[in-house]
Amino acid sequence: QSVLTQPPSASGTPGQRVTISCSGSSSNIGNDYVFWYQQFSGTAPKLLISKNDQRPSGVPDRFSGSKSGTSASLAISGLRSGDEADYYCAAWDDSLGRVVFGGGTKVTVL
Amino acid sequence: EVQLVQSGAEVRKPGESLRISCKASGYSFASYWINWVRQMPGKGLEWMGRIDPTDSHTNYSPSFQGHVTISADESISTAYLQWSSLKASDTAIYYCAREPTTSGPLDWFDPWGQGTLVTVSS
To answer: Distance (Å) from the C-alpha of residue A45 to the closest C-alpha of chain B?
Structure first.
């Protein structure tokens, strides 16, 4: 059971908008930044969104992040087949004294 | 180009020791934390701990404290993850990742190493 809760899967057709939620608490998301990572099958994770809503250089603007209270969201607009991957949220948890990850959401393009 | 290159796959028996490495290049090694993250087969990401290469100060996840040791050799820009007695449940892919040393508790992880597969089996 992950400290940050994500839906195990999400899907959409090409061109659609998909949103992935990440639910936490006042000791993690409610207290600090949220980061999002993208992991294609068999490869290392890659930074997708930094500090709630900042896109690193090279990340398409189809990807956007937001945070409100103790929850965060990752949105993928204009969905493409190349977006099929696992997506993880991450934050620091003050009570646990460690980095916590969500369980990951597998995005499928139908 | 900023890169983290990890050592190759390892196979060990339960009870054996192991050290895997993560060599950094393309940036000032001392200016960033190195984190270690575990991914068990078919599972999600778990943070194990991190090290500040400047002074070898470490933070460990309570879940991994006492079972692994994180170290670094600034002279060769390399961080290490070490076990003194492996268990079958240590079978996983282990990733290293760079993190800026900021005033907050957590910053971005980028880049990540390619991962090291550790298999522990009798």
So the answer is: 7
3-state secondary structure of A53: coil
Contact call for B35 and A99, based on CB within 8 A: yes
Q: Is the per-residue pLDDT at B103 higher than 80?
A: no
Which of B3, B50, B110 would you mutate first to test chain A, the one with the most A CBs within 10 A? B110
What average pLDDT does the segment A93-98 reach?
94
10 Å Cβ neighbour count for A63?
A: 18
What phi, psi does A81 have (nearest 5°)? Answer: -60, -30
Q: Residue B62 corresponds to which tokens in the numbers above?
A: 């309570």
Provide the mean pLDDT of chain A. Answer: 97
Contact B108, B1 (CB under 8 A): no
Tell me the C-alpha distance between B122 and B117, whole Å. 16
What number of other Cβ atoms are within 10 A of residue B8's Cβ?
9
Residue B107's contacts (CB-CB under 8 Å, 6 or more residues apart) are: A33, A50, A51, B99, B100
